[in-house]
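R.M. (postdoc): so does anyone remember the format we settled on? I'll just put the structure tokens first.
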């Protein structure tokens, strides 16, 4: 496989964002997992994140800071419907590649509207759980 990435679904209520990133990267490195990018999966407003957008942004900044300290290339998996209620107007994720979800069945960025400081995406997840050879996958477009 030419490209293998991993993603982390952070646990806000668990605290210690740096520890979550460190534990994830240590596990991957200790098990010789070769990956290109660590994607932070930012979704679940009101379920997986706190009610304070500033506390959420500070937690996110802790994730990013630790990943950078460990020399890990990062990206952000989210969408406007997830990012905006969780982070508000915070733009601290925008320096990193965006992988957004919009299940419209279209492998294109024609539907993208800027949010969170991002003006263009890198990857689009355009279809949810789809069966291929009896395996459930999500369909993504990476031009």
């Amino acid at each position: 496989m030419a490209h293998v990435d991993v993603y982390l679904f952070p646990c806000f209520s668990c605290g210690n964002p740096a520890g979550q990133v460190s534990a994830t990267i240590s596990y991957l490195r200790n098990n010789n997992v070769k990956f290109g990018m660590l994607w932070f999966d930012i979704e679940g407003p009101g379920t997986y994140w706190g009610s304070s957008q500033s506390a959420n942004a500070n937690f996110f900044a802790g994730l990013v800071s630790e990943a950078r300290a460990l020399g890990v290339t990062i990206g952000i998996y989210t969408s406007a419907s997830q990012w905006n209620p969780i982070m508000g107007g915070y733009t601290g994720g925008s320096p990193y590649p965006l992988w957004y979800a919009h299940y419209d069945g279209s492998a294109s960025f024609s539907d993208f509207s800027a949010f969170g400081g991002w003006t263009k995406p890198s990857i689009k997840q355009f279809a949810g759980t789809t069966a291929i050879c009896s395996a459930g996958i999500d369909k993504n477009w990476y031009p």
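R.M.: ...and that's the designed sequence above, right after the tokens. Also worth knowing: The mean pLDDT is 95. The two ends are 17 Å apart (CA to CA).
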